[in-house]
Amino acid sequence: MDILANGDFFPSAPNITSLLSEWDLKHVYSTEDVRRSINFILERSAILEDALDVEVTEVEFFASTPDLSTLVKVPALFIATARHLATLALAFCLDKVSSSPIVISGFADTLGKVELKTTAGSGAVLELHDEVAFPVSSKATVLFADKVEDVASNVGAKNLWDGAKTPEQLHFALMTEAAGLLRTKGLACKPENVPKFTIGSDFFDTARRYGALGADGPNSDLLRETCARVVINDPKYPIGELKRPNKVGKLMPIVRKDGAVACRTHVQKSHAALRLMFWRHNDGTVELANVGPKQELEIFNGASAATEQHECWIQKEE
Hints:
Layout: H1 2-6, H2 13-22, H3 31-44, H4 48-52, E1 54-65, H5 75-93, E2 102-104, E3 112-125, E4 136-145, H6 148-155, H7 157-162, H8 167-184, E5 197-199, H9 203-209, H10 220-231, E6 239-241, E7 243-245, E8 251-253, E9 261-266, E10 274-280, E11 286-293
Parallel strand pairs: 2-4, 5-11
Antiparallel strand pairs: 1-3, 3-4, 6-9, 7-8, 9-10, 10-11
Helix pairs in contact: 2-3, 8-10
């Protein structure tokens, strides 16, 4: 924050107005709307050192592959970037973070995973049994993410699913799982290549009820894969239509008023097997409805509150 303020890097009202005019967005946003949004993001952001209990105050040596120094435009910002990357590398080496760090890239070039070698000349490390003597050399791999799918792929569908607290987060996890399955088949795997699907309003609660959510859910991995395979039309087990007897006793497919057909498939085939119930719309869209035991014949109608694909996944073409 001090570097942004001292270097006059905060967006000024004239600059914001100029950019809105250049992009023909003055009729959509006001200068104050943009300024307030930027400040709101900064206010909510956690300070890296506070989050990790690690602070590097001086970087004596900094090297990377590819070489980030060739992309420097503003030296003061690059020095701050190097110091923060050194903080991440040191935190990773001290097991303050359990997986390779991810940063949202501010560089124009697409960098992907960058190998860092840093020497922290001075700093502080909290909550450690053993004292850390500076200077400290560290190595780490940091993902410079340009798109949300980069972050999701690096975190992994399993971690996203296990940590999901809402249907929206489950949808995000399934998008990642489906994209991964397409990738293993050698197919295009960008978010726009994943067929559209929705999550019904009862799906989350029934999945939790039958142990298919959370890291300790015995059926979590099975349900995640089953749902993703149904979405990309590559089911692990056969898909059957749910049927009910009509007035004369003949079994007929269950069809909703909007034309969606009720379907079900196995999640597992053990003695205590689970089934996944879903609606298939006329346009092929899958709506995940509910999870139930092997003999489950009920499908929930949660279309009115279905969770659809979040627009953050799709990068709109101008």
